[in-house]
Fold this protein.
Amino acid sequence: ERTGDARTALYKFGVAVSLSPEDSALWSGIARAALKIVPNSDEVSTLQQAAVSAAMNAYQTSRTVSQRAEALSLLAQSLDRRQEGRPALEAYKASLELANAPAVQAALADARARLAAGDP
């Protein structure tokens, strides 16, 4: 996916969530879009924080187990991107406790290996 598409998605999800702030799927969309954008050097931390905040909001507004699992997976990815290895591992584990997803299992294994090797 092209970066421009993710930027457009981020904008559109932001507009939508301003109209429906209790919609977990919209918050998840913001997190996914923020994670897909290849940031300019001056927007790295802003996009990382946007992804973490949106994932947390997605979790807080979730109403189903699958929404919670997705939000936790997005939170884990967002924390991993910020090089917060241990909190990312905990979020991956919490996601897997709710839904057994092969992609999340693989991400957890990768994060564990990097943390064990001393690479955040």
